[in-house]
Amino acid sequence: MKATAKGYQYCIDNPEEAGEILLESVPELNKDLVIKSQQYLAKEYQSDASRWGEMSEERWKKYADWMYEQKLIEKPLDAGKAFTNDFLPKE
Questions:
Q1: Distance between CA atoms of residues 21 and 29, nearest Å
Q2: Over 70: is that where the pLDDT of 91 sits?
Q3: pLDDT tens profile 8-36
Q4: Is position 91 within any domain?
């Protein structure tokens, strides 16, 4: 998780460079789309959380309720038991 958080932080801080790194591995992608996508996603990866990867019970409840309403899951989900932030890096 520490390495993943570090990678996402790099993408947040350096969206264009992150896009270029992706393009090195997958050059057939549309360069303009990749760069613009990274510029947009850089603001969304962490969004309103205090750190990358942090989940909230409220967010999980909204999503679980929507899935239940759409009949994607058979019974309501206990959002408080569906996730943990325990494995996220402390720093």
A1: 12
A2: no
A3: 999 999 999 999 999 999 999 999 999 99
A4: no
Same domain, 32 and 65: no
Cβ atoms 86, 1 nearer than 8 A? no
The SS3 call for residue 30 is coil
61-81 pLDDT per residue, tens: 999 999 999 999 999 999 999
What is the residue range of 76's domain?
A: 55-84
Q: Are residues 20 and 47 in the same domain?
A: yes
Do residues 56 and 50 lie in contact, with contact meaning Cβ atoms separated by under 8 Å?
no
Give the whole-angstrom CA distance, residue 17 versus residue 38: 9
Q: Domain for residue 90, yes or no?
A: no
Identify whether the C-beta of residue 83 lies closer than 8 Å to the C-beta of residue 64. no
The Cα 61–Cα 65 span in angstroms is 6
